[in-house]
Structure formats: structure tokens, C-alpha cells
């Protein structure tokens, strides 16, 4: 009987439609368990720690799903961190602890998110500004408005709204169900709708897609709107956990850079046209496992960032090398 190689395993994973990054996820998890058993407290596999790890991955996971859409379209969104802060601040400012104000607050921040996504998409697609510069500029505008209007916590959210962050249905936290729902809906949009097919086409080659008759501008704009709406969803989740919103919650979480990193680690090409939300979810879980492992081992905060950055570079470099080998 011939030995099964790593490439054979990867081919079998692809054959059943599972992104290869899930093999990396399994390897990272096994390594984390072994390291915790040898150098830590041996508790990383406990149900409490695993549940906490999943809940802590929800905020990044939701916005990373939206970031997947814009990156698939060969764009990017650096404004999401400040939009998360805007959502958290405006939600708590409008609610002021009153349950009757919840629908108004949620509607208001969704409208703000859709508008920001529309602005990003129009600047990128109509004005032909580089998406990195365009969304960075929009993010700085949001930062300026926040800093000019609020210094710290803007208000409180009612206890009923905190169910989003702390509630559960049976043994499963509501937040995890929210992440799964966003992932499933995102996957269905990309795989089962005309917009999803058009987005992959635009990301593969915008010029070819345009010559084929696609409304490429509309596709890019809609992708940015979806990304902004997921940032709003992340902001709502965060404010439900913190019970109030502050201008620093988005930037301090590094949701702009980490969402991009999770998407790329999940196998979506920065050049667009290749990848999906299933891989992004795996990338987010890899980050969650790394953070939990570092905490269990008592790794210094600054060293933790160095290790995370190194792992991201190695993961992206491996994808690049494999892509070049396949293209050769």
C-alpha cells in the first residue's frame, strides 16, 4: 500500500469542496494542544475555553466576511475599523439605555453603513481612485468626525440588546449563531447568485468583465456596501458586549488590517477573483486559536504581535509560492 502524501490529502480535500486552509487549521489546532499540554495548563480543549475562543472570533469573523467580498472584487476596505466605532458610538448614543430606541438605533447605523459603503464604492469605481487610498481617506474622515464629537463612552445600551453579546439558545451562544448565519448567507450570495458570479468575474479581470457586458461599477459598489454592513454588524455585536460605545473600539481591535489578513490567510487572492467566505472563516479561527494559545502560554503582548505577523507572512508567502508553481 502506497503512503499517503500531504499533496494527496490536499487533493482529496479539494475534491469534496473544502478549502485547503482547513488542513492548516487542523495542524494549528493540534500544535496548540501539544504546546499547551507541554508548556501551559493543558486546558485549551476545555469547553469553556473553546467557547470563549469562538465568541472572541465573532467580531473579526463578521467583518472579515464582508472584507472577502471587496477583496474578491480586487478592491479593499480600510475604513471598516472606524465604521465599527461609528456604529458602536451611535448605537449607544441613540439608545441611551432605552429598549424602545433599539429599532431606531439599528436602522440609523445600518443606513450610515450603507451610505459609507456607497461612498467607498463610488470613489473606487466611478472616480477610479485606488481603493487603498479611497477607503483610507474615508476612514480618516470618520475618525475626524468621531474625535470631534465624542471623547469616550457615548451612552448605554439596554439589557435586552445585550442578549446579542451574552445570550444563548440552549448551549450555543447567540453570537456564534450570528457568525454562522453571516457566513452561510455570504457563501450563498457568492455561490448561488448572479451578483456572486459577476463579482468573481470582475475580480478576475475587470476589463474582460466590462467587455463581456457586466456593469462592473455596480458590482464593486455593492461589494463595498456589503462590506460596510458587516462592519456595522460587528459594531452592534461589540457594543452589546461592552454595553456602551466609544471611538476607540474599532481601531484598537485592528479590525481593518486583521480582517484583510484573515481573508488572505483563508486563501482569497488580494488580486481578486479567487477565494471565498469558507476559507475566511478558517483564517479567523486560526487567529482565534493563536490568540488563545498565546494567552494560555502567557506570551508577552508585544511578542504575540510579532509571532502573529510572522505567521501571516509565512502563510501568504506559501500561497504565493504555490500559485507560481501551478502557473509555471
Overview of the molecule:
The structure is a single chain. The protein has 328 residues and is mostly helical. The protein has a domain at 55-273. Helix content is 74%, strand content 1%. It is built from 16 helices and 2 strands. Strand 1 (168-169) and strand 2 form a beta hairpin. Helix 5 (80-95) crosses helix 12, helix 9 packs across helix 10 (194-204) and helix 10 (194-204) crosses helix 12. 45% of the residues are buried. The mean pLDDT is 89.
What tags apply to this protein structure?
mainly alpha; 74% helix
Quick rundown:
This protein is mainly alpha-helical. The chain is built from 16 helices and 2 strands. The mean pLDDT is 89.
Mean pLDDT: 89
- Succession of helices and strands: HHHHHHHHEEHHHHHHHH
Strand order of the largest sheet: 1-2
- How would you sum up the global shape? globular
Helix content: over 70%
End-to-end separation in angstroms reads 31 Å
Strand content: under 5%
What is the number of strand segments? 2
DSSP summary: helix tally: 16
Largest sheet: 2 strands, antiparallel
Structural class by secondary-structure content: mainly alpha
Give start-end ranges of low-pLDDT stretches: none
Oligomer: single chain
Supply Rg: 20 Å
Amino acid at each position: 500500500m502506497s503512503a499517503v502524501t500531504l499533496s494527496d490529502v490536499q487533493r482529496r480535500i479539494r475534491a469534496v469542496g473544502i478549502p485547503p486552509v482547513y488542513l492548516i487549521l487542523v495542524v494549528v489546532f493540534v500544535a496548540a494542544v501539544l504546546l499547551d499540554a507541554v508548556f501551559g495548563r493543558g486546558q485549551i480543549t476545555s469547553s469553556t475555553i473553546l467557547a470563549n475562543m469562538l465568541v472572541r472570533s465573532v467580531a473579526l469573523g463578521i467583518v472579515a466576511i464582508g472584507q472577502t467580498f471587496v477583496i474578491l472584487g480586487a478592491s479593499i476596505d480600510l475604513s471598516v475599523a472606524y465604521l465599527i466605532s461609528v456604529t458602536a458610538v451611535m448605537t449607544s448614543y441613540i439608545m441611551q439605555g432605552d429598549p424602545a430606541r433599539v429599532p431606531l438605533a439599528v436602522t440609523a447605523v445600518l443606513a450610515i453603513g450603507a451610505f459609507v459603503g456607497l461612498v467607498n464604492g463610488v470613489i473606487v469605481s466611478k472616480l477610479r481612485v485606488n481603493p487603498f487610498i479611497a477607503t483610507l481617506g474615508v476612514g480618516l474622515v470618520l475618525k475626524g468626525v468621531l474625535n470631534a464629537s465624542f471623547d469616550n463612552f457615548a451612552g448605554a445600551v439596554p439589557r435586552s440588546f445585550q442578549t446579542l453579546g451574552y445570550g444563548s439558545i440552549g448551549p450555543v451562544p447567540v453570537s456564534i449563531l450570528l457568525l454562522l448565519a453571516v457566513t452561510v448567507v455570504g457563501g450563498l450570495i457568492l455561490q448561488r447568485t448572479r451578483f456572486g458570479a459577476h463579482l468573481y468575474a470582475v475580480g478576475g479581470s475587470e476589463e474582460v468583465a466590462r467587455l463581456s457586458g457586466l456593469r462592473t461599477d455596480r458590482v464593486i459598489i455593492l461589494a463595498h456596501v456589503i462590506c460596510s454592513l458587516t462592519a456595522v454588524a460587528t459594531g452592534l455585536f461589540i457594543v452589546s458586549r461592552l454595553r456602551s460605545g466609544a471611538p476607540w473600539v474599532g481601531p484598537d481591535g485592528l479590525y481593518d488590517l486583521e480582517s484583510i489578513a484573515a481573508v488572505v490567510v483563508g486563501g482569497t487572492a488580494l488580486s481578486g477573483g479567487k477565494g471565498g467566505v469558507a476559507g475566511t472563516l478558517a483564517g479567523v479561527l486560526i487567529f482565534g486559536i493563536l490568540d488563545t494559545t498565546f494567552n494560555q502560554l502567557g506570551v508577552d503582548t508585544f511578542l504575540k504581535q510579532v509571532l502573529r505577523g510572522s505567521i501571516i507572512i509565512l502563510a501568504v508567502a506559501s500561497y504565493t509560492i504555490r500559485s507560481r508553481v501551478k502557473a509555471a
